[in-house]
Specification:
alpha/beta, 7-stranded mixed sheet, binds pyridoxal-5'-phosphate, 4-stranded antiparallel sheet, Aspartate Aminotransferase, domain 2
């Protein structure tokens, strides 16, 4: 048996093997250079902005799309374009990136958190109804780690209570729930195209909807609250609050080139994930993600569960996980942490100091006492403690890297005594 790399043995994954995301090609460079040549750099009617909107709407199967300068701005537009505002409550999962909740706060609305599914880590539909009050206006499911939420029951609850559904699909371009792409099901939805995302343009966002009114309002919000019509004189009149959420033509052109390759890139992520999950199932001590039969994830992140009991180790996961991460990292297998606590445990919520002076919670129009406590979300806490994401499960990496990963997992997990040694060392330190 080979020594683990962490104890001086050979490393399983060669140092230069891991490629970064996104894969860049001449097509991307040509697209950006063509913008230089065209000299049209700006504007919501610029050719790449308009074409990207049409192409992404078609990809999702939604009627309307607006390109924005971030996922957060797209989400803010998704909230505000439905008329949700000061004092309205929006139900969101405790496990997400906090930008989801920020998009609600940006319009002085109040996030109300609920826990997640124990197996598929998205918002738990059975927790939603208990969180509904007479102030609730919308449910905001987050399709997290590339996994689509269980949209059937969520839409049913929304219909029963007369609520809107707003999607956060920042991590899930192309993921499906009951065969339908996320973004085509909800009333409005926001996507991010920042560097790490399945559809990447460096920075950027996309808002989609089937609702013509929401589309019109979102257009105003994107551009200072004004109505700007291509080819017509500018009115210079703001109809309400608006922001500067326009995207740059370089980014739009780059995003279009990436969008053409999104289906192939997602298919590669799925192929790698299926292979890894099948292989990890035979390696006691870790597990791949569970996929409910009605969902088709796009694996923004490939997550791994840490299971000490499968190795017969009587140690808490809080000691087992870092020891295993250390051993695997030495083999060249990176397992990163994404989120440390439920979002409602972050200071902005526990201290309720959004804009300062307690706003928006203390504003007169809200008038309800709400407390945020991380411990109210035990499934989120358990999920965060037991999981990490595996680096590099995307193209241009190849199946060869996935095979090396499995080799490394087998090597490390076949040596529980060595893992225990690392745990004992950590305890002493
Ligand atoms: C779930 C989720 N929501 C919202 C965002 C915000 O997107 P952006 O960083 O493009 O504003 C991100 C990404 O950072 C995200 O992962």
């Amino acid at each position: 048996m080979q020594d683990l790399a962490v104890f001086g043995g050979p490393r399983t994954v060669p140092e230069d093997m891991l490629e970064t995301w996104p894969p860049l090609t001449q097509e991307d460079r040509d697209a950006v250079n063509a913008v230089f040549d065209s000299n049209v750099l700006h504007g919501t009617s610029a050719p790449n902005a308009v074409a990207l909107q049409d192409e992404f709407a078609e990809f999702i199967g939604a009627k309307y799309c607006l390109v924005t300068n971030s996922g957060t701005s797209a989400l803010h537009m998704a909230v505000a374009s439905l008329g949700i505002g000061p004092g309205d409550e929006v139900i969101i999962p405790a496990f997400t990136y906090w930008s989801t909740a920020a998009a609600v706060l940006h319009h002085n609305a109040i996030p109300v958190f609920v826990d997640i599914e124990p197996d598929a880590f998205c918002i738990e539909p059975s927790c939603i109804e208990a969180a509904i009050t007479d102030k609730t206006k919308a449910i905001l499911p987050v399709h997290i780690h590339g996994m689509a939420c269980n949209m059937g029951p969520i839409m049913e609850i929304a219909r029963k209570h007369g609520l809107y559904v707003i999607g956060d699909a920042c991590q899930a371009h192309g993921a499906k729930s009951d065969g339908k792409k996320v973004g085509s099901i909800e009333d409005t939805c926001g996507f991010s195209t920042n560097r790490s995302k399945n559809l990447s343009s460096g920075e950027g966002g996309l808002f989609v909807t089937n609702n013509e009114d929401a589309f019109r309002v979102a257009g105003r919000l994107r551009e200072f609250g004004e109505v700007v019509v291509h080819g017509e004189d500018r009115e210079y009149n703001a109809y309400g609050m608006g922001w500067m959420y326009r995207a740059h033509e370089f980014v739009n052109a780059f995003c279009r080139a990436q969008l053409r390759r999104l289906p192939a890139n997602n298919a590669k992520r799925q192929e790698f994930a299926q292979y890894l999950t099948a292989e990890l199932a035979d390696i006691p001590g870790v597990e791949g993600p569970y996929t409910p039969p009605n969902r088709e994830p796009v694996y923004f992140s490939y997550i791994v569960k840490f299971c000490p009991e499968q190795l017969g180790l009587d140690v808490p996961v809080s000691l087992y996980k870092p020891a295993l991460q250390k051993a695997l990292a030495a083999e060249g297998i990176g397992l990163g942490q994404w989120q440390n606590v439920p979002v409602p445990a972050q200071s902005v919520f526990t201290d309720k100091q959004g804009y300062g002076k307690g706003c928006p919670w203390t504003c007169a129009h809200y008038g309800r006492e709400i407390e945020y406590r991380g411990e109210d979300y035990p499934t989120t806490i358990k999920f965060i403690a037991e999981h990490a994401y595996l680096a590099g499960v995307f193209p241009p990496n190849t199946m060869e890297l996935m095979e090396r990963y499995i080799e490394g997992f087998k090597k490390v997990l076949s040596q529980p005594a060595a893992i225990m040694k690392l745990i004992d060392e950590a305890k002493k330190a």
